[in-house]
Every structure is written in C-alpha cells, then in structure tokens.
C-alpha cells in the first residue's frame, strides 16, 4: 500500500502560531482563490434542497449527485473546546499554538506523547446542501477522538493532547488529517467527533460551531486494526460488547443519516484511508 505519509511531504501545515495568527495567511489564500473563480467566469448550477419524509434535508448537484445534511449530535464530555470544564477549569485546546495541523498524532502545548495505533488518512468534504452540494471553502473543522486504548487526551490522560486538531477546507471543500484508527470503550461504537465553524476566526470556542457531529467507523476495518496492534487490546474487548444499531448516538438516525455518518475505509493493517462528506445547511 502507498505510504500514507508520502502526501505530507509538501503539506506540512503544523502552524505553531495558533488560529488567530494564521488568519492573515488563510484569508489571503481564500481571496486569491475567489479572485481566480470570478476571473474565469466559472458558475455553479444550483438545485434547491428537499426534505424527505423523515425530515432529512438533501441536496442535488447538477450532475445528479446527492448530498445529505449531517445530523447534529452531542459533543460528549471530552470536547476540550471551551464549552466544559476539567478539574474545575475550562478546557480549550482551540486556543493552543499548533492546533491547525494535518498530523494530529502528536501532542501540542509543550507535551510530548504521540498516539499509537494503525495510521488513518482522513479526507472529508464539506458541502452546502442548500446550494446544490457546492463545496464550502474556508471553513474550519475541529476533530477529536479517543486513542487506541479508548482514552481521550487531556481528560483521561492529562499529560497528552494528541488526536485533536483543526483543518481549514480548501477550494474543493476538502480537509485532510492524518490520525490513527480510533479505539473505543464500553457502550460506544468506534467513532470520531467533529465541529464545523464558518471560519478560522470563529473556531476559538465550540459555542460558535455551525454543526457538531460524529462519524461512525466500519466494523471490519476496526477489527483489522484492533487485531494488528496490541495497543488496541482494550478496544478489541469493548467492540465485542457493542452493536451499531444499539449505540446511543447512531441508533437514533434515519437510514440516510446513518449512511452519511459512516466513513468509508480502504486499506489494510499497515494503514487506511477514510473518506466522508459533511453536508451543512448554511
């Protein structure tokens, strides 16, 4: 399999200055792209959204492709986005230097631990359901997940801040991160948490999120990863005791929503590529 790290050689986006210091660079890049679109006379064919019987909002692009509005889900107890506290103090990693980065396996904020586990390249696409599934550029996505042992950094392990990071969507609406296949814990199906913000400027507190959601992991890929690396021992046992249709989050969605929330994985025990789409009603 192609080394998942190869694509990082020209995309080292670990910015030690933090979100606010990155704004001038991000905005300049966005203006340049927009100027190119206007100058070329490019146009998007827009088709209005529709609401299915179950209340699910969908959109359709000019080529017939359909996008589904991602359902909002709870952030859970471990977001570290300024909306909750740990040991009596507000926790907000979004204000830390280096939080904008593609490789989220390492810790930031002066901490050293690196997440163990099977590598996973995450490739998400943000689209506007109301505007014919048009890509959403310049949006910030904050991703967090538990590690191979099913533990969340900061909360379950105060000496580490790994598996948390922010990425900014490009002109195609895409964000990319390098992480590990998430572990799990009793009662929950393997999953990732995410929040979407209108801009990097807005991504300094979870209260400003346009959408808080969760992605589910395919069972077979998880089992392959969990068998391959001993760091997943606790997660392997936890997975045996849970079912997707009984998960407290994913069981409540419609079939269309559950399909939109399920990441698609390719690869093997040496590494996976995960793809997904985040449909927003903006």
Quick structural summary:
This protein has 4 helices and 14 strands. It is an alpha+beta fold.
Q: How would the blueprint of this fold be written?
A:
Layout: H1 19-40, E1 50-51, E2 57-60, E3 66-68, E4 81-86, E5 89-92, E6 119-128, E7 134-135, E8 140-144, E9 164-168, E10 174-180, E11 191-197, E12 211-216, H2 219-228, H3 233-239, H4 255-261, E13 264-268, E14 271-280
Parallel strand pairs: 6-14
Antiparallel strand pairs: 1-2, 2-3, 4-5, 6-7, 6-10, 8-9, 8-11, 11-12, 13-14
GO molecular function, one term: dioxygenase activity
Keywords: Dioxygenase, Oxidoreductase
Organism: Paragemmobacter ruber
What would you note in describing this structure?
This protein has four helices and 14 strands. By secondary structure, it is an alpha+beta fold. It has a single domain, classed as Protocatechuate 3,4-Dioxygenase, subunit A (Sandwich). The strands form four sheets. Strands 6, 7, 10, 13 and 14 form a five-stranded mixed beta sheet that branches. Strands 9-8-11-12 form a four-stranded antiparallel beta sheet. A three-stranded antiparallel beta sheet has the order 1-2-3. Strand 4 and strand 5 form a beta hairpin. The protein is globular, with a radius of gyration of 18 Å. 40% of the residues are buried. About 16% of the residues have low confidence. It comes from Paragemmobacter ruber. This is Intradiol ring-cleavage dioxygenase. Keywords: Dioxygenase, Oxidoreductase. Pfam families: Dioxygenase_C (PF00775).
């Amino acid at each position: 399999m192609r080394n998942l790290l190869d694509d990082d050689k020209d995309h080292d986006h670990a910015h030690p200055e933090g979100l606010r210091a990155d704004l001038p660079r991000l905005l300049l890049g966005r203006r340049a792209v927009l100027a190119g679109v206007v100058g070329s006379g490019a146009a998007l064919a827009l088709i209005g959204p529709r609401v299915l019987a179950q209340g699910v909002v969908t959109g359709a692009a000019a080529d017939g492709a359909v996008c589904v509005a991602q359902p909002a889900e709870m952030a859970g107890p471990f977001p570290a986005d300024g909306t909750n506290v740990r040991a009596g103090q507000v926790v907000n990693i979004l204000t830390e230097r280096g939080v904008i980065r593609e490789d989220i396996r390492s810790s930031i904020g002066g901490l050293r631990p690196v997440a163990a586990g099977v590598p996973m390249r995450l490739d998400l696409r943000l689209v506007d359901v109301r505007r014919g599934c048009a890509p959403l550029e310049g949006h910030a996505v904050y991703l967090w997940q538990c590690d191979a042992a099913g533990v969340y950094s900061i909360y379950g392990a105060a000496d580490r801040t790994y598996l948390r990071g922010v990425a900014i969507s490009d002109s195609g609406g895409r964000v990319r991160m390098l992480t590990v296949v998430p572990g799990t814990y009793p009662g929950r199906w393997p999953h990732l948490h995410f929040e979407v913000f209108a801009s990097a400027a807005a991504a300094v507190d979870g209260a400003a999120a346009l959408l808080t959601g969760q992605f589910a992991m395919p069972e077979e890929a998880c089992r392959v990863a969990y068998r391959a690396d001993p760091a997943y021992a606790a997660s392997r046992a936890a997975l045996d005791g849970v079912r997707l249709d009984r998960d407290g989050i994913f069981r409540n969605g419609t079939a269309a929503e559950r399909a939109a929330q399920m990441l698609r994985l390719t690869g093997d025990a040496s590494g996976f590529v995960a793809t997904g789409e985040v449909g927003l009603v903006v």
